[in-house]
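Suppose a classmate hands you a notebook page containing two proteins, each written out with its sequence and a corresponding row of structure tokens. How would you begin to make sense of it? This section walks through that situation. The first entry is reproduced here exactly as it would appear on such a page.
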Amino acid sequence: MKVLVGLSGGVDSSVSALLLKEMGYEVIGATLYMWDETKNIRSCCSLEAINLARRIAFKLKIPYYTYDIREDFKEKIVNYFVKSYSIGKTPNPCVLCNKFFKFGFLFEKAKELGCSYVATGHYSRIENGLIKVSEDRERDQSYFLTFVEKEKIKNLIFPLGNLKKEEVREIAKNHGLPSVYRSDSQDLCFVDGDYREFLKRYLPEKKGYIVLENGEIVGEHKGFYNFTIGQRKGLRISKGKRLYVKEFIPEENIVIVAEREKVYKDEIEVFDINWHLEAEREFEAFVKIRQLSKPARAKVILYDNFAKVLFYEKQFAPTPGQVAAFYKDDYLLGGGWIK
């Protein structure tokens, strides 16, 4: 049985390929050449990563392909990233990269190469036809798989789903894989350092104001897109109390700040939902509003084109542009974008 493995040059994808080969699969490796402007050698977009992936394929004695998708990546991911900030949203490029490329483009290539499956080094599991939280909960990446299309799940393999990172590195070390000491890649593979510096290439600096909820001006800034909902550091204001970014008025270039309790919400709306399992009109679930947040118990009510999420405990800084992922019994039911 043939399987196409996405090789990023990192230890996770290389061990995935190794394990699948040991399980008897006919493994083919593939790397997506997405971006050529990064100088960060940790990035999965770097030329070093591609060269390392090629070495891994040679070590494992498997066929290997590199696909140049730079133009498409810039259009679908980088432009989306910049546009989101320009309208007051905080983007989640990893979710869309998975949808369009790692579980979109790679599926097309897998079909061309006669592969029945696509595998990656994501820390997640496939059980009962659904994506499930990884055994290593600290490493779990199921949140980033929210927009994987339902019909593709049966053709996915996540070999690391039952392993911990230390075990993965030990396997790589024992087999002499050249990726064993490579650092984990950063989330924003196309950004070197601070994303604000990256945005300066595309969005001009523009003087604006930081204001309280009552309209009182308490500071200045060089563009509202340099901030995210819930941010405290970097505001450079002093009012004798801690203040956090609550919301934006993009058309006026205004950042509104408030005390921490004002940034909590007990209700959000979610749209453009991708379902892995058909849901009832009303159901209870655990909802993650960002990758690093703990799933929070909530009631979900479905309407024609959106869902309302009612949390039993208020959540800090739900952020427009991020994903709300719905879970039940550790299974990923689906999710959508926070309005």
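The notebook's second entry, a different protein, reads as follows.
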Amino acid sequence: MQQAKWIAQRQARVLPTHHFHVVFTVPDLLKSLALYNREYFFRRLFEAASGTLLELGNDPKRLGAQLGITCVLHTWTRDLRFHPHIHCVVTGGGLNPDGERWIAARRRYLFPAKVMAKLFRGKLLDVIAKDWNAGELVCPPDLAQPRAFARLKDALYKKQWVVYAKTPFGGPAQVFSYLGRYTHRVAISNQRLLSLDDGSVRFITRGQKTATLSADQFIARFLQHVLPSGFVKIRHFGLLAAGNVNTKLEAANHLLQKACVSPPPKMLLPLLAFFIALYRPPSVTLDWRARLFLLTGFDPLRCSICGAIKLQKPLPRPPAILDSS
């Protein structure tokens, strides 16, 4: 229900335009540093990923507009290994600097993947190196010597990082569906757990493939993905940042809505106003059960096995009739 409520709240802020899905990943060489500095590393991931997209979007040679970005942190693979990466939902265009024009991006292309990867690598490694030299990071055993960190940094700069764009979203409805799958979610769902036999846990990884881990190993992998207390794994930047919701986001939404709706001929305006006044649909307030069903397709009143209604509200009792005699 928390997931459904969150989707309903986000629905009002998704712009009516196409969206892109960009994923920022980091090499395995950074794994130990990330595990010893989890909250720090996750925060820097958000900053580097969003900063990369915003910088390329504001570049006049590419788009010259401020994008709207929603970032979601993931830390797991299908077999529960530690693999921090950022999923980004990016608007297919942005608001120009003076806030008076929406600049649309191409339908199937945002920015070159290699350009995004190099810029993301530079931003993340630059801030990590500065904080390391300032003594603000916890030192993993494999990086105890200063030369070890220098070798790691050189290897990371030489390595080709992977940033890729998935199939673009077709419209706002697909954005809701995607975001809903990753809110209020942990590393593995109950449906993927198959068995616990002789101290081993067997679970589904992908498709028909499975993995079997000892109970200790399973718990150890699972606990790697428990986020620091109070850490927010979904963040918004650019047009969707909290400071722009009531200003730039409203302006962008107005421009997009205006572009989508062509004004009717002037001679039809009086007739259109008459029908609008004649038909005013009643405002309906949905209870939590109805809203949950509309947003998720789950009916809490219906048995998932037999399909019968298992919970019903009792009918109100008729008022007692007093015998006047």
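A careful reader of the second entry would note: The beta strands are 19-25, 68-76, 82-91, 93-95, 102-104, 163-165, 193-197, 200-204, 210-214, 234-238.
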